[in-house]
Amino acid sequence: MEMQSFISAYELLGLEADATTEAVREAYLQKVRQFPPDKAPGEFERIRQAYDLLKAPGTRERALVMGTSIVPGALEYLESLKPIRRHTLPGFWLSALKEP
Predict the structure, then answer these.
(1) What is the CATH number of the domain that holds 26?
(2) Mean pLDDT score, 88-92
C-alpha cells in the first residue's frame, strides 16, 4: 500500500496517526452521518475507502511504523531520491576466489 493513501485516509477522517480502532470507527460514523450515501455518493465512497484502509489494527500499526506522520512535502522528496547502487566489480570476487 502506498504511504500517501494512508496519509490521505487519516486526513479525510480527521484522525491522528496513533488513533485507536474505536477512534477510527467513531470518525467513520461521524463522516457517514455528515455525508450519507444517498445524498453524497462520491464523498461517501472516499470515506468508505479510507475506513477500509484504516479499520484493521495491523494495517494502521504498519503505517505508523513506516512513518505516516511525516512533514508535508517530505514524501515527495523521498520518492524523488534515486537509490544509490553499490556493487563490486566481478574482478575483485574472481581474484578472491582464486586465492588459497
Answers:
(1) 1.10.287.110
(2) 68
pLDDT in tens, 14-69: 988 778 889 999 999 999 999 999 999 999 999 999 898 888 767 766 666 665 44
Q: Is residue 92 part of a domain?
A: no
Asked if residue 64 lies in contact with residue 17, where contact means CB atoms within 8 angstroms, the answer is: yes
87 in a domain, yes or no? Answer: no
Question: Domain limits at 31?
Answer: 3-81
Residue pair 43/35 in contact (Cβ under 8 Å)? The answer is yes
Mention every residue, 6+ apart, whose C-beta is less than 8 A from residue 47: 12, 13, 28, 31, 32, 35
73, containing H or E segment: none
Instruction: Tell me, yes or no, whether 73 lies in a domain.
Output: yes
